[in-house]
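Q&A log
Question type: sequence-to-structure
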Amino acid sequence: MRRYGKHTDEDDIRSRPNRKGNRPRTNIRPKHEDAAEGLVLTVDRGRLTCLVDGRSVVAMKARELGRKAAVVGDRVALVGDLSGTKDSLARIVRIEERTSVLRRTADDDDPYERVVVANADQLAIVTALADPEPRPRLIDRCLVAAYDGGLEPLLVMTKSDLAPPDKLLELYGALDIPYVVTSREELESSDAADRVREHLDGRVTAFVGHSGVGKTTLVNALVPKDRRRTTGHVNAVTGRGRHTTTSALALPLQHADSWVIDTPGVRSFGLAHIDPSRVIHAFPDLEPGTEGCPRACSHDEPDCALDAWVAEGQADPARLYSLRRLLATRERREGD
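Response status: OK
Response body:
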């Protein structure tokens, strides 16, 4: 073995060659200060279509992001080929901080949380008044997810030519949720679309609803130049429609900064990720009354201070009933 003294010459020291010919790894990551800003429009099998300076750019997530995934509505930073030409591919190197998140789980026993949409201002819950029948439990779950995620709810009732909206309006009247009632004939004209559009100007609105309620038909009426395939078919036995929207898609409205995000039809909306203590924030008239509640109060137990708060006339009893009904949805399945 060759030995070296204290005063060896560097040229006399041998080093192993790098057989792969690549540079040694480093933990120092580039800051990508020159990255372009983009908006995620849709995600399809690992490829994300982003809007960058008015053009569509296909990108993939950079390895340095690890398990962090971008979803529709995310504001991202991109590098690489931003031309948007065929077969070009950019890289998403950063996901900006989100202002709101719509999340759900497959069911109430599923610990895996799925982010559906990011940075939406409003959640439009679309439900048919008939064919298929309304599912109040699913509506309640969507409301809880909206309140938890920081989105304002909007109730859109379709097919009013088949059934009146009175029962649903009575059920949700105490929540003071803005609503729009439409019929199939109105959707063929611009009347219904115009009434819905009044609630969308200047906002990013995510549309949710189970299959067959006319959600995508409504989106097509709002954005006629970007029509999506619709079903119009509801199974006579199950009362459910067939999924035609398979991925979320953000579409721009004519008004500046107005977007609609069409999401796939849902058959369940799990709330395993929801902290019930956050839902009370959507009830500012009831929230002060929780100061006297015991620790970790579920707001539906004998010692809950909200009962006394309502008895003193500080809030409407119907509001407390609505809060407890929404909180109870976390313990029940949508079809119950």
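Response note: The CA atoms of residues 78 and 161 lie 47 Å apart.
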